[in-house]
């Protein structure tokens, strides 16, 4: 409780917020970012679930979209965990 985490690649950093941080504002910011990232992930999932896209797109594009979706899923999990910790 009272800490937040950030992920950069495979590194996870925890920061103690102390008493000087407005937890409500921070929680609202996390919620907004979670909503934005969820919309992005949903769009990529729809795109990647379309067989026509997967068959016709360049393999590099499909691979990049799959990698981005994996990144978003990791970020979403971290945002949810941060919201729960607050």
Mind explaining what this structure looks like?
This protein is an alpha+beta fold and 86 residues long. Helices cover 69% and strands 14% of the residues. The protein has three helices and two strands. It has helices spanning 23-48, 51-56, 59-85; strands at 3-8, 11-16. A two-stranded antiparallel sheet has the order 1-2. Strand 1 and strand 2 (11-16) form a beta hairpin. Helix 1 (23-48) runs antiparallel to helix 3 (59-85). The longest helix has 27 residues, at 59-85.
Q: Could you list some keywords that capture this structure?
A:
86 residues; elongated; two-stranded antiparallel ribbon; alpha+beta; single chain; 2 strands; 3 helices
Quickly describe the structure:
The protein has helices spanning 23-48, 51-56, 59-85, and strands at residues 3-8, 11-16. It has 86 residues and is of the alpha+beta class.
Class computed from helices, strands and strand pairing: alpha+beta
Q: Taking all residues together, what is the mean pLDDT?
A: 89
Roughly how many Å is the radius of gyration?
16 Å
Give the beta-strand count.
2
How are strands sequenced across the largest beta sheet?
A: 1-2
Write the layout of secondary structure elements.
Elements lengths: L2 E6 L2 E6 L6 H26 L2 H6 L2 H27 L1
Antiparallel strand pairs: 1-2
Helix pairs in contact: 1-3
